[in-house]
Amino acid sequence: EADIYQTPRYLVIGTGKKITLECSQTMGHDKMYWYQQDPGMELHLIHYSYGVNSTEKGDLSSESTVSRIRTEHFPLTLESARPSHTSQYLCASSELETDYNSPLHFGNGTRLTVT
Amino acid sequence: AQSVTQLGSHVSVSEGALVLLRCNYSSSVPPYLFWYVQYPNQGLQLLLKYTTGATLVKGINGFEAEFKKSETSFHLTKPSAHMSDAAEYFCAVSDRGGADGLTFGKGTHLIIQP
Q1: CA of A6: how far to CAs of A65, A76, A113, in Å?
Q2: Pair A107, A90: CB distance under 8 Å
Q3: Residue A89 clears pLDDT 70, i.e. is over it
Q4: Of B49, B90, B103, the CB nearest to A103
Q5: Choice among A57-61, A87-91, B8-12 with the minimum mean pLDDT
Q6: For a tag site, which of A97, A113, B84, B95 has the least CB within 10 Å?
Q7: What is the pLDDT of residue B95?
Protein backbone atom coordinates (compact mmCIF):
# COMPACT_ATOMS: atom_id res chain seq x y z
CA GLU A 1 0.00 0.00 0.00
CA ALA A 2 1.44 3.31 -1.13
CA ASP A 3 2.27 5.94 1.46
CA ILE A 4 3.01 8.44 -1.25
CA TYR A 5 0.16 9.57 -3.43
CA GLN A 6 0.12 11.19 -6.82
CA THR A 7 -2.85 12.72 -8.57
CA PRO A 8 -4.04 12.57 -11.22
CA ARG A 9 -2.90 9.15 -12.47
CA TYR A 10 -3.57 10.13 -16.07
CA LEU A 11 -3.90 13.59 -17.60
CA VAL A 12 -4.55 14.57 -21.21
CA ILE A 13 -4.39 18.29 -21.78
CA GLY A 14 -4.04 20.75 -24.62
CA THR A 15 -0.99 22.83 -25.46
CA GLY A 16 -0.64 26.04 -23.50
CA LYS A 17 -2.61 24.96 -20.45
CA LYS A 18 -1.26 25.34 -16.93
CA ILE A 19 -1.15 22.12 -14.95
CA THR A 20 -0.19 21.05 -11.46
CA LEU A 21 0.75 17.49 -10.60
CA GLU A 22 0.09 16.70 -6.96
CA CYS A 23 2.30 14.61 -4.66
CA SER A 24 1.73 13.94 -0.98
CA GLN A 25 3.40 11.58 1.47
CA THR A 26 2.33 10.48 4.93
CA MET A 27 5.69 9.16 6.15
CA GLY A 28 7.07 12.45 7.46
CA HIS A 29 10.01 12.26 5.07
CA ASP A 30 12.08 15.39 4.69
CA LYS A 31 13.43 14.70 1.20
CA MET A 32 11.17 14.60 -1.83
CA TYR A 33 11.90 14.20 -5.54
CA TRP A 34 10.35 14.44 -8.98
CA TYR A 35 11.57 12.13 -11.73
CA GLN A 36 10.69 12.05 -15.40
CA GLN A 37 10.41 8.60 -16.96
CA ASP A 38 10.17 7.81 -20.66
CA PRO A 39 9.96 4.27 -22.11
CA GLY A 40 13.35 2.59 -22.46
CA MET A 41 15.15 5.47 -20.81
CA GLU A 42 16.73 6.16 -17.46
CA LEU A 43 14.77 7.93 -14.79
CA HIS A 44 15.88 11.52 -14.75
CA LEU A 45 15.77 13.66 -11.63
CA ILE A 46 14.16 17.03 -12.40
CA HIS A 47 13.57 18.51 -8.92
CA TYR A 48 14.24 17.70 -5.30
CA SER A 49 13.73 19.19 -1.88
CA TYR A 50 15.48 18.71 1.46
CA GLY A 51 12.58 20.10 3.44
CA VAL A 52 10.13 22.98 3.77
CA ASN A 53 11.11 26.00 1.66
CA SER A 54 13.95 24.05 0.03
CA THR A 55 13.87 23.26 -3.69
CA GLU A 56 16.68 22.32 -6.07
CA LYS A 57 16.91 21.52 -9.76
CA GLY A 58 17.95 18.03 -10.70
CA ASP A 59 20.17 16.66 -13.43
CA LEU A 60 17.65 17.06 -16.23
CA SER A 61 16.68 20.57 -17.21
CA SER A 62 12.95 21.07 -16.92
CA GLU A 63 10.56 23.94 -17.56
CA SER A 64 8.50 22.85 -14.59
CA THR A 65 8.62 24.43 -11.14
CA VAL A 66 8.03 23.00 -7.68
CA SER A 67 7.20 24.28 -4.22
CA ARG A 68 7.53 22.88 -0.71
CA ILE A 69 5.35 24.78 1.70
CA ARG A 70 4.45 21.75 3.80
CA THR A 71 6.57 18.71 4.58
CA GLU A 72 4.04 16.29 3.15
CA HIS A 73 3.26 18.13 -0.09
CA PHE A 74 5.50 18.66 -3.17
CA PRO A 75 3.49 19.77 -6.21
CA LEU A 76 4.97 20.23 -9.68
CA THR A 77 3.65 22.93 -12.00
CA LEU A 78 3.92 23.51 -15.73
CA GLU A 79 2.87 27.05 -16.60
CA SER A 80 2.31 26.29 -20.28
CA ALA A 81 2.21 22.66 -21.31
CA ARG A 82 3.77 21.56 -24.61
CA PRO A 83 3.79 18.20 -26.44
CA SER A 84 7.47 17.80 -25.44
CA HIS A 85 6.28 17.58 -21.83
CA THR A 86 4.46 14.34 -22.57
CA SER A 87 5.96 11.79 -20.19
CA GLN A 88 5.45 9.91 -16.95
CA TYR A 89 6.26 11.88 -13.82
CA LEU A 90 7.20 9.97 -10.66
CA CYS A 91 7.29 11.50 -7.20
CA ALA A 92 9.42 9.95 -4.47
CA SER A 93 10.49 10.60 -0.91
CA SER A 94 13.19 9.44 1.50
CA GLU A 95 14.34 10.01 5.02
CA LEU A 96 17.24 12.29 5.74
CA GLU A 97 20.20 9.95 5.59
CA THR A 98 21.57 8.63 8.81
CA ASP A 99 23.80 6.00 7.29
CA TYR A 100 23.74 6.94 3.63
CA ASN A 101 21.46 4.23 2.41
CA SER A 102 17.97 5.62 2.74
CA PRO A 103 15.91 4.16 -0.10
CA LEU A 104 13.40 5.99 -2.24
CA HIS A 105 9.67 5.45 -1.79
CA PHE A 106 7.82 6.08 -5.04
CA GLY A 107 4.29 7.07 -5.89
CA ASN A 108 2.44 5.36 -8.75
CA GLY A 109 3.14 8.20 -11.16
CA THR A 110 1.20 10.62 -13.33
CA ARG A 111 1.14 9.90 -17.04
CA LEU A 112 0.87 13.25 -18.82
CA THR A 113 -0.10 13.62 -22.47
CA VAL A 114 -0.07 17.07 -24.03
CA THR A 115 -1.91 17.31 -27.34
CA ALA B 1 30.50 11.12 -13.38
CA GLN B 2 28.92 7.80 -12.62
CA SER B 3 27.01 5.69 -15.11
CA VAL B 4 24.98 2.49 -15.11
CA THR B 5 24.70 -0.02 -17.95
CA GLN B 6 22.03 -2.69 -17.96
CA LEU B 7 22.68 -5.31 -20.60
CA GLY B 8 19.54 -6.24 -22.46
CA SER B 9 16.45 -4.04 -22.56
CA HIS B 10 14.34 -7.23 -22.57
CA VAL B 11 15.10 -10.60 -20.96
CA SER B 12 12.82 -13.58 -21.41
CA VAL B 13 12.97 -16.70 -19.23
CA SER B 14 10.72 -19.67 -18.67
CA GLU B 15 8.80 -20.05 -15.45
CA GLY B 16 11.03 -21.94 -12.99
CA ALA B 17 14.25 -20.99 -14.77
CA LEU B 18 17.12 -18.91 -13.43
CA VAL B 19 16.75 -15.15 -13.72
CA LEU B 20 19.92 -13.14 -14.39
CA LEU B 21 19.74 -9.40 -14.97
CA ARG B 22 23.06 -7.70 -15.60
CA CYS B 23 24.23 -4.36 -14.27
CA ASN B 24 27.63 -2.74 -14.65
CA TYR B 25 28.51 0.65 -13.24
CA SER B 26 31.25 3.19 -13.31
CA SER B 27 32.06 5.19 -10.25
CA SER B 28 35.16 6.94 -9.06
CA VAL B 29 34.50 6.09 -5.43
CA PRO B 30 33.10 3.03 -3.64
CA PRO B 31 29.48 2.99 -4.71
CA TYR B 32 26.13 2.42 -3.12
CA LEU B 33 24.16 0.06 -5.37
CA PHE B 34 20.44 -0.57 -5.66
CA TRP B 35 17.95 -2.63 -7.61
CA TYR B 36 14.41 -1.32 -7.98
CA VAL B 37 11.42 -3.11 -9.53
CA GLN B 38 8.49 -1.46 -11.30
CA TYR B 39 5.30 -3.43 -11.85
CA PRO B 40 2.89 -2.24 -14.55
CA ASN B 41 1.22 1.07 -13.76
CA GLN B 42 3.07 1.44 -10.47
CA GLY B 43 6.02 3.36 -9.11
CA LEU B 44 9.39 1.82 -8.34
CA GLN B 45 9.92 -0.36 -5.28
CA LEU B 46 13.26 -1.18 -3.66
CA LEU B 47 14.33 -4.81 -4.18
CA LEU B 48 17.69 -4.71 -2.46
CA LYS B 49 20.68 -2.50 -1.79
CA TYR B 50 24.42 -2.76 -1.18
CA THR B 51 26.17 -0.17 0.95
CA THR B 52 28.99 -1.83 2.87
CA GLY B 53 29.82 -5.24 4.28
CA ALA B 54 28.78 -8.55 2.75
CA THR B 55 28.95 -8.46 -1.02
CA LEU B 56 26.06 -10.90 -1.52
CA VAL B 57 22.86 -9.06 -0.76
CA LYS B 58 19.48 -10.68 -0.35
CA GLY B 59 16.32 -8.80 -1.17
CA ILE B 60 12.60 -9.32 -1.32
CA ASN B 61 10.77 -11.95 -3.38
CA GLY B 62 13.76 -14.31 -3.46
CA PHE B 63 16.08 -11.99 -5.40
CA GLU B 64 19.73 -11.48 -4.58
CA ALA B 65 22.65 -9.58 -6.05
CA GLU B 66 26.41 -9.77 -5.70
CA PHE B 67 28.71 -6.77 -5.69
CA LYS B 68 31.92 -7.58 -7.58
CA LYS B 69 34.29 -4.66 -7.33
CA SER B 70 36.84 -6.13 -9.75
CA GLU B 71 34.17 -6.47 -12.42
CA THR B 72 32.28 -3.29 -11.44
CA SER B 73 29.12 -5.36 -11.55
CA PHE B 74 26.00 -5.83 -9.45
CA HIS B 75 24.02 -8.54 -11.27
CA LEU B 76 20.57 -9.51 -10.00
CA THR B 77 19.58 -13.18 -9.79
CA LYS B 78 16.71 -15.39 -8.72
CA PRO B 79 16.99 -19.20 -8.81
CA SER B 80 13.48 -19.89 -10.04
CA ALA B 81 11.34 -17.39 -11.95
CA HIS B 82 7.68 -16.93 -11.15
CA MET B 83 5.03 -15.39 -13.36
CA SER B 84 4.64 -12.58 -10.83
CA ASP B 85 8.25 -11.52 -11.43
CA ALA B 86 7.33 -10.02 -14.79
CA ALA B 87 8.21 -6.35 -14.42
CA GLU B 88 10.75 -3.65 -15.25
CA TYR B 89 13.97 -3.77 -13.22
CA PHE B 90 16.23 -0.79 -12.68
CA CYS B 91 19.79 -0.80 -11.38
CA ALA B 92 20.97 2.40 -9.72
CA VAL B 93 24.25 3.66 -8.28
CA SER B 94 25.09 6.47 -5.90
CA ASP B 95 28.59 7.66 -5.17
CA ARG B 96 27.72 9.82 -2.21
CA GLY B 97 24.85 8.06 -0.60
CA GLY B 98 21.41 9.55 -0.59
CA ALA B 99 18.77 9.38 -3.24
CA ASP B 100 19.59 12.72 -4.86
CA GLY B 101 22.91 11.29 -5.97
CA LEU B 102 21.34 8.29 -7.71
CA THR B 103 21.98 7.45 -11.34
CA PHE B 104 19.57 4.94 -12.85
CA GLY B 105 20.10 2.50 -15.68
CA LYS B 106 17.66 2.29 -18.58
CA GLY B 107 15.90 -0.70 -17.13
CA THR B 108 15.43 -4.32 -18.18
CA HIS B 109 11.98 -5.67 -18.95
CA LEU B 110 11.71 -9.20 -17.58
CA ILE B 111 9.31 -11.48 -19.46
CA ILE B 112 8.29 -14.81 -17.94
CA GLN B 113 7.21 -17.50 -20.39
CA PRO B 114 4.73 -20.07 -19.05
Answers
A1: 16, 11, 16
A2: yes
A3: yes
A4: B49
A5: A57-61
A6: B84
A7: 72
Residue A47 sits at φ, ψ, to 5 deg, of -150, 150
Judging contacts by C-beta atoms under 8 Å, the chain A residues touching residue B45 are 106
Query: Which residue on chain B is closest to A100 by alpha carbon?
Result: B97
CA distances in angstroms from B40 to A62, A109, B43, B62, B76, listed in the order given? 26, 11, 8, 20, 20
- Whether residues B51 and A104 touch (CB distance < 8 A) is answered with no
Contact yes or no for A45 and B44 at CB 8 A? no
A9-50 pLDDT, tens digit per residue, is: 999 999 999 999 999 999 999 999 999 999 888 889 999 999
CA B37 to chain A, closest CA, distance in angstroms equals 11
| Interface mutation vs chain B, best among A4, A101, A110, most B CBs within 10 Å | A101
What does the mean pLDDT of chain B come to?
90
Q: What pLDDT digit, counting tens, does each position of B34-48 carry?
A: 999 999 888 899 999
Interface size between A and B, measured as CB pairs under 8 A: 66
Q: A30: left (phi > 0), else alpha (psi -120 to 50), else beta?
A: alpha
Distance separating the N- and C-terminal Cα atoms of chain A = 32
Q: Are A3 and A107 in contact (CB under 8 A)?
A: no
E-strand ranges in chain B read: 3-7, 10-14, 19-26, 32-38, 44-50, 56-58, 64-68, 73-78, 87-94, 102-104, 108-113
